[in-house]
Amino acid sequence: MAKLKVLYYRGPGQVTVYEHELLYDDGKLIVSQAPFRPSASLRAQVPQLAAQEYRATWSVALGEWHDLGRVYDLAGGLVGYYCDIIRPVRRTAAGLEVEDLFLDLWVSPDGRYLILDEEEFTAARSRGWLDGPTAARAWEELARLIAEVRAGRFPPEKARDF
Hints:
By secondary structure, this protein is of the alpha+beta class.
C-alpha cells in the first residue's frame, strides 16, 4: 500500500511528521489510515477515548478548512469522529502539509458533540499565531460543522465509504 507523509504544523516551529497508508486519492479527496494515539488531555475531555491507541481513517478534501478522522477501536468498532479545523491542505511530492488552527470537534456516533481546544485557540490568538481573518474563518468552519451535525448530515457522504 502506498505511503503518505503528513507534515502537521501546530504553531511556529512545531511540526510533527506522520506516516499514513494512502487508501484513496482522486485529486480532490484524499483518504488515508494511521494509528490514532489521543493525548492525555484529549482522553480526559472525551470519555470514549479511554484507550491509548485507536485506528483512524482520515479524509481531507482539497480546499476544505477541516479534516475528518473516523476513529475505530482496535477491534474495528466505530468510536467517533474527530475533526481538526485547519487551513486547506497543501500537497507535496511526498504527501500533505497540514496547518492546525487549534479548534477541534469530536462527534459521537449518536450525534453528540464536543468543541475541543478552545483554550489553545485563545492562546494561539494571544501569541499572534493566528490573525483576525484566519481566526474568524476557523470559528466559521467549526460552526458549519456543528450545523451539519445538528441537521443529521454528519459525517459527509464522501467520508462514509471509508
